[in-house]
Amino acid sequence: MARATMRFLSSDEEDTLHGQSLRSLEELGVLVRSRPVLDMLEGAGAEVDYDKMIARMPETMVMDAVRKAPREFTLCARDSRHDLKVPVAGIPFMANTGLASYMMDMDTGERRNATVADVTAFARLCDAMDLVDFFWTPVVPMDVPDMSHAAHLLWTSLLNTTKHVQQVEVMSAEDAKVQIGLAELFAGGAEELGNRPLFSVVCSPISPMSFEKGSVEAQVEFSRAGVPIVSMNMPISGFTSPVTIAGTMNVVNVENLASLVISQCAAEGAPFVYSSAAAPADMRTGSLPSGPAEMPAIAAGLSQLAGRYGLPCMIGGWGMCDGVKPGADMTLSEVSSYAAEMFSATDLASGLGSMDGAKGAALEQIVIDAYTWGNFRSSLRETKVDERSVALDALKAVGHAGTFISHPQTLRDFRESISVRDESKRSWEATLSYGMVEEARALAKKILDEHAAPETEMAIVERGESVIREYERSTMGT
Q1: Tens of pLDDT along 264-311?
Q2: Which of 18, 118, 333, 376 has the most crowded Cβ, counting Cβ within 10 A?
Q3: What whole-number distance in Å separates Cα of residue 76 and Cα of residue 163?
């Protein structure tokens, strides 16, 4: 099967980046702000400087971790019909935006703090939408204690969607244990969760080349429980990575390989997703530009590196709004950069419903972004290239200067060969436009009115709520 993808690195350039990453890991190492994790790495062969909390990893250690990592696995869901096997063969799996710091209220149009009720609404909306393949925990709920954000996010998500949940917030090893315990209630136990991981977790290194105590110790717990790790780092070229594309890709690769080593030292064969949201800075302002021209090249190169190591990857995102209100406010060049990024051969992507540089989120924006993604994703589907699809028999039957419109092969194959777009929503894709917002808002409300959350046994609900209450009491010292 053929699939349109974009390559950025030659074989020699790929070899250079791989070699420089191994040299970086062995000579510079990574900063790991956790004594237990440093002890674990030293026991597996790393050279550890405990005063500086630096772990230097030799090539043999890194490549051993690469060999141990699974080449494919399944991101499982409460409803097995939504299970996602990675790597994908064709169109990447898409999720909504995550960890937004505020909501645009769908009724008032005003910016406000997010709540657990917003997580419920996001989960139900995404559960109903076929174009959303898995669910990112979408916002930071401000109506619950800080230390229990992640527990509430995962619990509320699992209650309200039958799709795989990707957790985007984690605080500590204890927080990880609580999340694992909550997921076990749905899976049926620890072994069942390990066999069918209903959620995965974004554990982000901090560029350049450092791992914070809470996140890295949580990563160890998740890996031991069989919960897939998504090592999404976010270096900013010129700020937290070298300004060059090659220098940024090296930081990404070093951090992903180090994260892989940590997971495999914690549990051999732990599922792991190579991931990055690297982007260049706007050197005039210090901000992150929308849809920078370098992003497609960075994404393509990183996907090649992930493929070199045989790892599923999550690189790139999708969205039509970078402004402070729902709509499609990006310019043609910015949208083109995001579109080209999706040809990087990534397996997973996210971003539907994002606003304001991912700081905000809106339910109606998910509807707008998902529709646009639905039109674009046909460009990434698998295409048959075999004797049947070449259609030489049809060519012989029609002959020179003929037409294929009435040939049986046209009727048989046109639906899978040619995409048909919804002309009634053509205006939704107009850049610098807000005309689609009211229609999208009405559709979002209709879905929320009509789509029910999946049923959960009352005993599970009561036990989960009890686990969260106990965790809140322990973290608040009451």
Answers
A1: 999 999 999 999 999 888 888 777 777 888 999 999 999 999 999 999
A2: 118
A3: 8
